[in-house]
Structure formats: structure tokens, C-alpha cells
């Protein structure tokens, strides 16, 4: 599985494109809001001859959902989220103007919700869904065991963790999610977070000040 990161919007959010040799592609957390950002995403997909087959959100805070409608409309895919984050998604249009996103237009999620224990399949790739709340009530991460890759959203960062002061956030719940869901993955698993550079499970076990 190939992992491509495109960083968008004032929050410097990492949008991920996952694809394999079949050219089928999954878009995770599209943060593209400005026209130039949308064009950058589309240009990458076209130049690599990719076929977008799924649209996933790890969670539904504003910086991770700004491009949902663009991706859904452009590629004819439905938005897939965990049901516990539905209210998080529906609240975005209410506060988006306060952050300067006057033109934000949201979409409803599919009622085929992401659930822990299920798998995301595309091309020759399978991703495990792990439920990891604490930063957001319906936060999930996506793990490829053969590739030892985790698309982690805002759960775990290099040397840090997701904030827990937003609605539905809880510090103890987040720490528990990291310890029971992410830290049980192999040490050499690469974690691709929603912001900033990638890290590894081994590095965070050793150096993360929140988890010593």
C-alpha cells in the first residue's frame, strides 16, 4: 500500500491517499477547502491514474472534513464515519463561519457506519478499523497489518497526543485508546497522524511525555 500525504487548510491538516498496484484509492480526511487545494488533490489523483473508491473520516472535526463534499461529488463516493461521530459532523456547519470557512458545505454520512472489527477493502488491500475515542467520541484509526501502517488521525502525534478539550473529548479515554489500541501494534508500525510528521509506535513508547 502506498501512502501519500497532502497538507491542507490553515490547520495544516494531513489528508491521506491510500492506494496499491490496482490503482484503487481511498481518501482519508480530505482537508482541501480552497480551490487550489482541491485542484492539487485532483491533479495527484489524475496524474497517478487512480480510481477513488472510498471516502473515510477518522473523525469529524472541521479541519478533517472541509473537502468531504468535493471528494464525494467529484468521485461519486459516500462518506464513511463511525456512528458516534455523527453529531460532531453535523455541528461543523454551525461553527465553520467562526473559523473563516464561510463557504463550507457539508454532506451527510452514509448509514453504513465504520465499526471496530470490520475491514476496509480496496484493490488488494485490507485495513482494520480500530475504535480509538478520546479526542473525538467516534474517532477511528485504520491499520494495515502487512504494511505495518496506521492512519491515526488526531489520536497520537510525534511526541504528543490529540487535544481533549473539545466537545466529546476526554483525556483518560484518549490515553486508554492509545495504550490498548495503538500500543498493542508492532513497535515498527508507522503512524501517520492528522498533523505533523509520521512516527513509530516504538518511538512514542520511549519518548512521548504523555505516555511514559
Automatic annotation (TrEMBL):
SMART domains the UniProt entry points to: Lactamase_B (SM00849)
Molecular function GO terms recorded: hydrolase activity; metal ion binding
Domain Metallo-beta-lactamase: 12-195
Cofactor(s) annotated in UniProt: Zn(2+)
Keywords annotated in UniProt: Hydrolase, Metal-binding, Zinc
Pfam assignment, any one: Lactamase_B
Gene3D superfamilies: Ribonuclease Z/Hydroxyacylglutathione hydrolase-like (3.60.15.10)
Keyword Ribosomal protein: no
Matches recorded under PANTHER family: HYDROXYACYLGLUTATHIONE HYDROLASE GLOC (PTHR46233:SF3)
The protein, known as: Glyoxylase-like metal-dependent hydrolase (Beta-lactamase superfamily II)
Organism ancestry: Bacteria, Pseudomonadati, Bacteroidota, Cytophagia, Cytophagales
Amino acid at each position: 500500500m502506498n501512502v501519500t500525504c497532502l497538507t491542507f487548510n490553515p490547520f495544516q491538516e494531513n489528508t491521506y491517499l491510500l492506494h496499491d498496484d490496482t490503482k484503487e484509492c481511498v481518501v482519508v480526511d480530505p482537508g482541501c477547502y480552497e480551490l487550489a487545494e482541491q485542484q492539487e488533490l485532483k491533479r495527484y489523483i489524475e496524474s497517478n491514474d487512480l480510481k477513488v473508491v472510498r471516502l473515510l473520516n477518522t473523525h469529524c472535526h472541521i479541519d478533517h472534513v472541509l473537502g468531504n463534499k468535493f471528494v464525494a461529488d467529484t468521485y461519486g463516493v459516500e462518506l464513511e464515519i463511525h456512528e458516534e461521530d455523527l453529531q460532531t459532523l453535523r455541528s461543523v456547519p454551525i461553527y465553520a463561519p467562526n473559523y473563516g470557512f464561510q463557504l463550507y458545505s457539508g454532506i451527510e454520512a452514509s448509514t453504513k457506519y465504520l465499526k471496530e472489527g470490520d475491514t476496509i477493502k480496496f484493490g488488494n488491500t485490507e485495513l482494520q478499523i480500530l475504535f480509538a475515542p478520546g479526542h473525538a467520541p467516534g474517532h477511528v484509526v485504520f491499520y494495515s497489518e502487512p504494511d505495518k501502517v496506521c492512519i491515526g488521525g488526531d489520536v497520537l502525534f510525534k511526541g504528543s497526543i490529540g487535544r481533549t478539550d473539545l466537545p466529546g473529548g476526554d483525556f483518560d479515554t484518549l490515553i486508554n485508546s492509545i495504550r490498548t489500541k495503538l500500543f498493542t501494534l508492532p513497535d515498527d508500525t508507522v503512524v501517520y497522524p492528522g498533523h505533523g510528521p509520521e512516527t513509530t509506535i516504538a518511538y512514542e513508547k520511549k519518548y512521548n511525555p504523555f505516555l511514559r
